[in-house]
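Chapter summary example.
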Amino acid sequence: MSWQISTQALRTDADVVSARLAARRLAELLGLERREQTRIATAVSEIVRNAVEHGGGGEIGFTVETDSGDAVFAVRVHDNGPGMPDNAPDASRLTPALGLQSARRLVDEFDLQSTPGGGVRVRLGQRIARQAAARLDAAAIQAAARQFERRIDPLLMVQQQNRELAESLSDLRERQDEALRLNAELEETNRGVVALYSELDERADQLRQVSDLKTRFLSHMSHEFRTPLNSILALSRLLSDRVDGPLNSEQERQVDYIRRSAQDLLEMVNDLLDLAKVEAGHLEVKTEPFSVSEMFRALRGSLRPLQLKPAVDLVFEAADDLPELVTDQPKVAQVLRNFIANALKFTERGEVRVSAAHDAARGFVSFSVRDTGVGIAPEFHARIFEEFAQIDGRLQNAGSGTGLGLPLSRRLATLLGGEVTMNSTPGVGSTFCLALPVRLGQAAAAPAVRPPGEHQPLALVVDDEESFRYVVRHIAQDSGLSVQEAGDGEAALALARQCRPDVIVLDLAMPRLDGFATLARLRADSALCDTPVIVCTSQMLTLDQKRSLASAYAIVPKHDISREGLAGLLSAAIHHTAPSS
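The structure predicted for these 581 residues follows.
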C-alpha cells in the first residue's frame, strides 16, 4: 500500500532548498530518527540539484509505502532531461559530481531508471523503525500530510539545523576528549604492562636461582645422608647375623625395626638424589640392548619380598615376541618397580598384572601395570604426580611412602624419550603405563646400510683426541656413513663449509676454538645453521653452559657412549627425529 503525501515542481535553486526542507520535515513527522532525517534530506538535496542543474527541472514526490512489509519513506524525483548516456542506470559509471554515488550511500534503498528522451527517474527509500511504523496508519499519515502543508518558515528551519550542527560538533568534541583520555590511560597501562613484564622476568630469574639452589642442596644432602644410612644398615646386618653374640627375640625385633627404617630412609634419599640429578641434567643415561622377558624375570625375583598378601597374585605376562630394547635398563626397571610396588601396596585382593606390547607403527614398546586395588578418584589423578603428594586413605595410612616414586617415574620416562600415563577408577583398580621408544634417540630403528646408489650421508667428527675420533669413525662407518675428521674448531668450520656434512659430532674442550664457540659459529652460518650437532664431552656442564648448548641436537657424556646408542643418535639426527633428551 502506498500513500501520496506531497508533490513539488523543480525549476530553480530555491526549489532545491525547499525540497531538502520538505524531506527533512516529513521524515521528522513520520518518526525517523534525527540521523536518518539528515541522511534522507542530504540525499534528496543531491538528486534534486542534479535534476535542476542537469535535467532541466522536473518533479519530486513524497510517499509512504508498506508493500514490502516494512514501512518506507520514499522520495521520487523525475527530471526533464535527455536521460543518461547508454541508458545505464548504474550510478557507479556516472561522474561523482552528479551526486548520485553519495546519495546512494546515504539511503537504505536506491533505484535509478533512464530512457532516451524520457529523463531520469530516481527513487530514494529510508526504512522507518518498527516502533514508529506501528503507529502509522491512514489517519496518522493524513495528519502528517496536513501538518506538513502548513507554512514552513525557512529561517526557523535554518536555525534548527544550526542548533543540530552545534550539538553534533559538541558531541564530536566530547568524543575527541574521550579518545584523548583513553589514549592517556592506554599509555599508562602500557607502561604498567612493561613494568610488570620486567618484574616477572626478575621473579623468573629468582625462581630459577631458587630451583638451582634447591637442586644443589638436595644433591649434596642426599650424598651426606647416604653415608650414615649405609653405616646403620651395615651395623644392623652385623647384629642380625649375630657376629658379636646371640640376640634375644626382643632385640631381634628392635634390630629389624632399625634396619627397615634405615632402608626406607635410604630409598627416600636415593629418590631425592635422582630427582635432583634429573632437574640439574646430571643423571646419566646408559644405553644397552636387553630383552623385556629377561627384565621381567629380574623384576619378579626382586619384588617377591613385597608380595606379602596371599590374596594378591603378581602376574607377569609372557614377553618373548617383543623386539630387543636399546635404552637404559636400570631406569626402565626402576619405573616399573615403582608402579608394581604401589599396585601391591594398594591392592587387598585380586591381582597385579604386568604386561608389554609393541607398537610397530610408532616404534614404541608400552609397559602396563594393572591392579584390582582401591583405585584413585579423578580429582587426584594429577596430584599423585606431584612431589611428596599422598592421598589420604585407609591403605595409604597403613603403609610407608614418600610421595616421590611417581614424580620420579614420570621424569625418568621423559628422560628416556617416553611418557607415563594412567587410568584409574575408585573400587575397580588402576593401570599405569610406560611407553618408550625401542631405541633411545629415535622412534624406530633405521637401516644401517643404505641401498646401492643412494646418497651416503657424511658425518664430521671434531675432537682433538685422535683415539676418540677413531672410535666415533668406526661406529659411524659401521652405520653406513662416510666420515671426515677435524682436530679443532677452526678446521671443523672450514671443512664443514666445504663438504656440508649431514651430522656433526663435536667435542667441547679443544685448542684454538672450543666447542662452544664452534657451535655458535655454525648456528650463525646460514648454510650450516640447520646441521644437527651431537655434543660429546667429558666435562661436567653447569646450567649456564647447557643453556649455551641449547641448539645442539643432543649432549652425550663421553664415558656413556656405546656403539648402539651413538649409532641410534647419528641415524636419528640425519633423519631429523627428535632426540630423547
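To summarize the output: Residues 87-97, 442-453 have pLDDT under 50 and may be disordered.
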